[in-house]
Structures are given as C-alpha cells and as structure tokens.
Write a structure and sequence with these properties.
3-stranded antiparallel sheet, ATP-binding, transport, Rossmann fold, ATP binding, 6-stranded mixed sheet, globular
Length: 267
C-alpha cells in the first residue's frame, strides 16, 4: 500500500521514539506471519500520539517493540525516553495489595526507599483523584477506579520519584486501556488522562481502534494499514479541542480512510 503522509509535526522537540523501516515477522517458512512492515514513526518528548487501526494490524506488536519486550525482524527502533511502562485493558492490579501499595510496587522494584515511594504513591493517587482510597484493595473499587490506580502505577513506573533524571521523560504505552469500560466511565477517564498528561508531560503512545477516542486524546493520529501493518497516513489534531466543526471533519476524514483500509484488506 502506498504511504500517504499529509501532515507531520514540526521538529520542535527532541525525539523520544524513532522507528525506521521496522518490520516484525513471527515464525519462519510457510507458516511465517508478518505483523509489521516498513514502519517509520517518530514521537517527540512529551507528545501524545494515538496509533489507530483495525484489529490484527499490529498495534500491540508495535507497543511491544517500543517496550523492549520483543525485537524487530528488520529496521531500527530507538527509544531515548526513560522507563517505558505499560497500561492495558485490564487493570491487572495485585489483589492482595492496597491501591497505594500497587502504585508503590514499581518504585519498590526500582530500589527506592519506603518513605520516598510512599510519598510518590500518595502524590500520584491524588493526581488521578484517588487520594482517599489508598488503603482499599482492588475488589473494593469500581472498574473505573481500578483503571485510575493502574494509571497511577504506570506513571510511577514511567516517571519514578518525579525528580529530574538523566534518562529523560518517561514513556507511557497504553494498549486500549478504556475499551472494557462503559461509555460514561470511558468518557470521564479520557478527560482525566488528558489532565494527567498535561500535568506530567509524559510521552504517550496510545493504541486504539476508536476514531472518536483518538481524535479527542491525541496531538497526532497515526493510521496503520491492515496486516502487515504500515503507516498509511498521519493527522495533526487541532490544538483547540473546542472547535466542534474541525473535530467533526477530522473524525469523518479518519473514519473514511480507516474504512478504505479495512475494505481493501477484505477484498
């Protein structure tokens, strides 16, 4: 498929992520499956990028490469942001730990002392508006609250104690984290995520198949083709999210292109 990139951000910020000609193939011989092919993608420090595509296009594989959980078959992957961390559809909290201790866990594994990690966990729970539930365990929380705790924990892993580090800003990799929630809770958490991102400046790569979600959240939307995934097009989202007409036009444009991608694959 011909790559048609009509809009790119100006190179005003340093690069947190850079992929050049990245391919990923699973297996060998006749049974080999190519998930990604020729991916070129840059994400700036502090940028919020949504990767959009149909199911099975390699979005999650891309996140795994960025996290260092898997290696590419071809091309190069460079991640200069420090401490990549994941957030998934399921909160995946430790059921025997309180909310605060779940948030503390990555800080404990990083070797930080008890007092420092407790203070940081309290700060992050307050950031996601859960400063009053630190002593509760996951089963005592609603689904939306569990996802907020998961977000606080991911931020703890990505940002450490929140002090300046030679590793640079953290990288938060989000794999459809709100897909399992009801529409009202999802809407609330999208707004909360934007508020937290603006407060922390964390670099975010957010995978979704929901065009509306991508347009609401991202500074830039990247559309992948169906398998093997490659970058088909990018859109810069208007900074003024209150311009309903421009947002609607962008939504319709992306939706139309996504339908073309899906239709061409089905044919």
């Amino acid at each position: 498929m011909t790559v048609d990139i009509t809009t790119r951000r100006a190179a005003a910020r340093t690069s947190a992520v850079e992929l050049r000609g990245v391919g990923k193939t699973f297996g060998t011989g006749a049974g080999a499956v190519t998930a990604l092919d020729g991916i070129d993608l840059q994400v700036a420090d502090g940028e919020f990028v949504c990767v959009l595509g149909a199911s099975g296009c390699g979005k999650s594989t891309l996140l795994n490469l960025l996290a260092g959980l898997d290696g590419q078959t071809s091309g190069s992957v460079r991640v200069s942001a420090g401490r990549p961390s994941f957030m998934f559809q399921e909160a995946a909290l430790m059921p025997w730990l309180t909310a605060q201790r779940n948030v503390e866990l990555p800080l404990k594994l990083a070797g930080h002392g008890r007092a420092a990690r407790q203070q940081r966990a309290r700060e992050l729970l307050a950031l996601v508006r859960l400063d009053d539930v630190g002593g509760k365990r996951p089963h005592e929380l609603s689904g939306g609250m569990r996802q907020r705790v998961s977000l606080a924990r991911a931020l703890a892993a990505a940002t450490g104690l929140g002090t300046e580090s030679s590793e640079g800003p953290g990288l938060l990799l989000m794999d459809e984290p709100f897909a399992a929630l009801d529409a009202i809770t999802r809407d609330v958490l999208q707004g909360e995520l934007l508020r937290v991102w603006r407060a922390t400046g964390t670099t975010i790569v957010f995978v979704t198949h929901d065009v509306r979600e991508a347009v609401r959240l991202a500074e830039r939307v990247v559309l992948l083709s169906s398998r093997p995934g490659t970058v088909v097009r990018e859109w810069t989202v208007p900074a003024d999210g209150h311009d309903a007409e421009r947002q609607a036009q962008l939504h319709d444009d992306i939706t139309g292109r996504l339908r073309q991608v899906i239709t061409s694959h089905a044919a």
